[in-house]
Amino acid sequence: MNTALNRRDFLKVSGAAGTGLLLSFSLPVLLKSGEFPSTFIEPFMPNAFLRIDPSGAITVTVAKSEMGQGVLTSLPMIVAEELEADWTKVQYEQAQAHPNKYGSQGTGGSNSVRGSYERLRKAGAAAREMLVAAAAQKWNVPTADCYAENSAVIHKPTGKKFGYGELANSAGTLPVPESPTLKDPKDFKIIGKRMKKLDTPSKVNGSAKFGLDVKMPGMLYATVARSPVFGGTVAGFDATKARQVPGVRDVIQFEGGIAVFASNTWAAIQGRAALSVQWDEGKNAEVSSSGIWKMFEETAKTTGTVEKSAGDPAGALQAAATTLEARYYAPLIAHATMEPMNCVVHLKADECMIWAPTQSPQGAQREAARVTGLPVEKVTVNVMQIGGGFGRRLYSDFVAEAVKVAKAVDVPVMVVWTRDDDMMHDLYRPCTYNELAAGLDRNGSLTVWTHRVVGPNSKGHVVSAAVPEYEIPNLHVDYHLLETGVPIGAWRSVGPSQNIWIVESFVDECAAAAKKDPLAFRLQMLNEKPRVQAVLKLAAEKSGWGKPLPKGHALGIACCDDFGTVIAQVAEVSLNDNGNPVVHRIVVALDCGQVINPDTVEAQVEGAIVYGLSAALYGEITVAKGRVEQENFDTYPIMRIDETPKVEVHPIKSSAPMGGIGETGVPPAAPAVCNALFVLTGVRIRKLPIRPGDLQKEGGIGG
Amino acid sequence: MAAISLTVNGKRQSVDVTPEMPLLWVLRDVIGLTGTKYGCGIAQCGACTVHLNGEPIRSCITAVAGCEGKSVTTIEGLSATTSHPLQKAWVELDVPQCGYCQSGQIMSAAALLKEKPSPTDREIDDTMSGHLCRCGTYNRIRSAIHLAAASGVKGGTK
Question: Over the Cα atoms of chain B, what is R_g?
């Protein structure tokens, strides 16, 4: 489609071609600044497309990427609701990247649904009004006598009816209403209903096409030997043996390392294994986890940049009846998406075609344009089903690399990352070192809180959510950001993933020091936040907080107010015969405002808890001699079915503005479990992941 | 290189590949059946699970030479119309999120149901703990296996 076409031209073209009603809208996007990293904010106005075929088929173009969070269903539901569509006739179409046609296609920050809600409602409503007007015109009756229902317009006095398909062409000739009337939410028939995801059948029969499933005629497969040390470069290599591997077609050096081209993935992997490469390891050759921690601890001795300061923290600490201090360590963590990074590129002289599982279609397009020197409109990015995103695929490093590789051949090439590649060349959730102090008065009320965060040089990833949500009269939060040599990125829930663990654990420490119930202790500091109070109370009630539990079981609670959603979780834990934690159930209460698909809300929270607990129980990337030490799932374990707790989700009906749901379930899981383990063992987990033996330390059950 | 004959989803195939090439890559890159997924290459995640003569195997560590003359069933061959009780249960409970691991999950579950038509939670966990799902759909997987079992139709493939 020619991007120079304006809105009216679209309709004319569409009408002339007889393909039906095609609408595009430009409406403001809902973005809360600071909620997602600047690296993927696309600063353009959004649009959405709706196509109604003469057959009555309704196609909603989804400009966000599908990675399991259900946008291929929830976004069409919004359009269909206002359109008064027959849901059984609605299908989705995944949008290709476009610099400005759809606004931001970046899929992150739990923003896809809430960020698209108003404009997709308006898109559906405007189309509905045009269809009603078209029918009224055909019947020569007042539009006020007509209404839309179930993909048809009905003339109230006579009961005459036109299906949407029959009206598609004539509606396309009418003016697009600027301010269509939106439905009253109490009349919603689709929004708020449990709808099955439209793409599920394709995911149970093998037909869903992920990035790795792309096949092009003549396509080669390539692996890349990358410097094992971050930032290293090729000093020399010998490809003699690699070239002898059956199926290997070529071996080339490029700016990202050595690429091995082959007729199949296995040959590309074997060919790379047969390479002999000497690396110039560069300035990160001596980077190690122990060195990073030492640097962080040393730096924490000095005052940092102030994030927030209130009252007189120093004076309040001196005046406090009880003070406590703690140091918390959050480790580096990998995304470990089930589908490793991959990208197919067909680079020709004057165009570049890409097939990628990307959360940033436009970022991929810009990167490819930069690498090739082509204008962005000569770069096509086909967005594939994503086998797990979690923030990793917001970054276009793997796309840019594939384009560089593709420069060496004139056929399509798929660059395949092995699991080892994926784990050792991630952009990791940052490790942070944290020093906290707090003071309580004689009544056990929290009077002062200080927190110094030291982490990698990426503020949004390190500091966000470090300031507690609680009302504390004297407060000081500051931070140091240091170069570590380890690439850092957004990891599902970003800053809250580590800071909510730290804040909610230390608040629990304060409650214990005050000899108060952790729930009551929290509630009394949340008088300005009734929504957080409400979810805490509901989670406590549903979990049986304060009531007898099976012998050897304990509960812990935690909450989080981020992504526009408030959530509380209660974890029930015990220890197994080896003294390691068993999480039996997590009871969740949440308020995310208007819900589109309740089943998706539950599914996202269920999954987020497993994601959060995998990290709490196992997640740690370590670095030695500039290299990541974990290579695969044997050294980087993920929670399995036999360890997964029961999850109960209790949404609160709410008129609050719509919140996000993809990430909110992650942050409270770890602190809820750690707080329960403290009740059980007296051991406070201040360093994740929880290691075997941690709970038998002094003061614990075995101590 | 050598021609190796095997039957895939009921169709005889002859592939000319190095005998040590894992079945996974033969299925995906040579035969073109991409429903079977690569996740780890070391039999840690289960995404590559297919049936070899009816038994679930990890195709990422199974050399194709060992499949000579044998019968392979992949997710594409589990049913012709997405009608296997497990597939129906998976749709009914909307199990998949990203969906990448689900082919392997379903193939293992199908073998389990053939062996144990009404598995207990424990039996499900014992079998399915060989699979990773990064989206955390485990509870729905367990429920869907129970649902398929309750439908009374035996799972599994020949």
Answer: 15
Query: How far apart are alpha carbons A574 and A681 in whole angstroms?
Result: 10
The Cα A637–Cα A620 span in angstroms is 9
pLDDT of residue A696: 80
Q: What is the pLDDT of residue A8?
A: 33
Half-sphere exposure of A692 (CA within 13 A, CB side): 3
Query: Does A413 lie at the interface with B, CB-CB under 8 angstroms?
Result: no
Contact in structure between B148 and B86 (CB atoms under 8 Å): yes
Whether residues A206 and B35 touch (CB distance < 8 A) is answered with yes
Average pLDDT of the residues in A428-455: 98
A463-482 pLDDT tens trace: 999 999 999 999 999 999 99
Cut 0.80: pTM above it:
yes
Q: How far is A277 from chain B (nearest CA, A)?
A: 23
| Nearest CA among B21, B23, B1 for reference residue B70 | B23
Subunit contact A200:B37, Cβ cutoff 8 A:
no
**What does residue B8 show for φ and ψ, rounded to 5 degrees?**
-120, 120
Beta bridge partners of residue A628, listed in sequence order:
A623
Query: pLDDT higher for A167 or A239?
Result: A239
Q: CB distance from B3 to chain A under 8 Å?
A: no
Q: Is the dihedral of CA A521, A526, A531, A534 positive or negative?
A: positive
- Whether residue B43 lies within 8 A of chain A, CB to CB, comes out as no
Tell me: cis bond preceding A689? Omega within 30 of 0 counts.
yes
Determine whether the interchain pair B135/A640 forms a contact, defined as Cβ–Cβ distance below 8 Å: no
3-state secondary structure (DSSP) of residue A422: helix
Q: What percent of chain A has pLDDT over 90?
A: 87
| Interface probe with A: pick from B21, B107, B138, B147, most Cβ of A within 10 Å | B138
CA–CA gap between residue A683 and residue A697 (Å, rounded): 7
Q: Look at residues A566, A464, A481 and name the one whose alpha carbon lies nearest to residue A522.
A: A566
Predicted confidence band at A43 (pLDDT cuts at 50, 70, 90)?
Answer: very low
Structure tokens at B32: 């073109």
Q: What is the pLDDT of residue A452?
A: 98
Helix or strand holding residue A353 (H, E): strand A352-356
Any idea of the CA torsion for A299, A305, A306, A307, to the nearest 10 degrees? -100
Report the distance separating Cα A697 and Cα A694, nearest Å.
Answer: 6
CA distances from A94 to A84, A97, A383, A384, B108 (A): 22, 10, 7, 8, 31
Return the bridge partners of A125, or none.
none
Task: Decide if A423 touches B, using CB distance below 8 A.
Answer: no
| pLDDT, tens digit, 9 for 90 and up, residues A201-228 | 999 999 999 999 999 999 999 999 999 9
Whether A340 and B95 lie within 8 Å, measured CB to CB: no
- Contact between A360 and B156 (Cβ < 8 Å): no
- pLDDT, one tens digit per residue, over B38-88 is 999 999 999 999 999 999 999 999 999 999 999 999 999 999 999 999 999
